[in-house]
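re: ur question from earlier - yeah i can do the single chain one, its not a big deal. heres the input i used so u can compare w yours
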Amino acid sequence: MSKKKAHESKKQPEVIDFSMPFEPDRKYKIIIYSAISVITFALAYYYLMVAKAANGYFSFPLDDPWIHLTFAKNLAKYFSFSYFKNEMATAGSTSPVYTILVALGFFISNNEMIISYFFGILFFILSGVYFYKLSGFDFPKENYFALLFTAIFIADKWMSFISVSGMETTMFIFQLLAAAYFYRQRNAVLFAVFFGLILWGRPDGVTFMGALAVDYVFAHLFSKNDKSIKLFTKNDFIKIGVISGAIVLVYFIMNYALSGSVLPNTYSAKLTYYGPDFKSRSEFLKLEVWGYFTAGAYGILAAGFIFAVLKMLFDITKKKYNPNILYVVFVFALIFVYWYKLPYAHRFGRYMMPAIPFIILSSGLGFRELSKIIGSFFKSKNAANGFMMIIAAVTIAYSFANYAANTKNYAEQCAYIHDRQVVVAEWIRDNTKPEDIIATHDVGAIGYYSDRKIVDVAGLITPELIGKIYDRNYTVYMTDYLKKNNVAYLAFIREWYRVVNQNPLFTSVNKEPIEYFEVFKFEPDKTYILGKEANSIILAAQDLLARKNYQQALQYLQQAARLEPNSSYTYFVMSYAYLMMKDNGNFVRNIKKALEIFPDFKEALLQLAGFEKMTGKTDEAKTHLEKFLTLDPQNKAALDLMKSLSDTTQVKK
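and the output i got, formated as tokens:
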């Protein structure tokens, strides 16, 4: 070798092999799949056992699962995609393929909880397996890292939570992971099947379909310079087009036949109700995206995800294919669609949950690239892989800690739904006639357990109301609609729709959080549903009262009274504000105004009687209490107050 070549060879930087080769054979893969399945099942099952021990019953932390169950029960029994026997056929399921699977479950068992838990956990297990299989493409010959990030996924606090929540979420996540896996594998037939089923899983799956298209465009462009990139053949595209096209076409035809729209009712209803007027887009990004994906273990993953995005952009400028394109484009597309059309992630951020596995995968790839930079700086393979191992171990530990903390939340949320929706449904079932029609806005448990025909004032299963929901005078239109459809009872949460000048027949649990159901007899010429604007002002005033801002609360209440002067409840809340301000004269004046509008106002009668006892007006207090007890003879608070009044009278004698 010449001196010049020897000198050049000394200048060349040392190339460090950072890989950690580990390729499990078939026997090890069976062990790994079995371990993933057992651990995943155990994590989900533990949530159920904690909730059962705390509450004494099984439930769901959401009302929506019973929507699937009601459709599924009727599909199995009447072979009709309907919400009441075979009389209300409608495209009211966001995830018809999940509903169909649950319907099949009813041929095996009549226990709705077992059916829902079975499918939720089954698809969580399959999601864990396919997450691991997909990560094999991201960590070729480094299966240790695939296993570590699979552990992060199955330990995720929301994955176990949602798997036992009766929702389609884990099934949808499995669909996305399987579609991504067969896409990476370039298996045209299986990819086409899962690609076509994505919309059947959820309409927002269109974002993943778009992300796949974007990824393939980049793969095709960069394959000219990188022959290792495998593409679909022309025959593959024909198979994909025919198979997935047929599946999607059937989906559109079914929805159109049921409701006259190619998408489910729920899509239009939720876009209407939870649109940008419901919650600001900036608040959505701040709280339901950034806040959600930086809390707990996600805070660590966010760092890896950000680095992965930067590396992806750098590779694109260098015309180099980056496997993160699919994951990152999907995450941002999902967020963008909700930000633009529906800035609301729903309870527990469940609309954002499909992004979780892909954020974890991207984060893993981001940290792997960062670890290589660290290893190059220190010229140490051990430094690179040590950093990667530490990051993964800390994230796993943090994830399990978050998982454990979330068990209490799951139990509490199951009780929350049971004590409101399920209890109300059972009361309706036991206290109304089979032919009675019920109007409500939460149609899940009420539809399933009451076994009554439902009018959905939120529009999910009553699509003709969707276009009117945001009208200023919607409650007037709604009342007229209820009359025409012979509705017999209303079941409303006060915060949604407030019935005034009428005492409820039944009230669900009334404790923190305050939100609770009331059931009313619907009397067409008497029942008065407060307008949305006035009710919103009253709710804002009550929030101000809770913060002891009495003067501003009164201003709000006076505005509500001007909007709807015949609302007894407005004057009742106003009287409370004056009572807190020790303005007894205005307290009496407003509470008597409430009773003038609605003489049988139980809360006002009890409040006034208590005040009159306190101010020494015993006879007046007894008069109001006696009237109260004719309306509610078993009320403990009223009976105790009457006893104390009798004791006071005897002492005076």
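The first strand starts at residue 437 and ends at 440. not sure if urs matches, ping me
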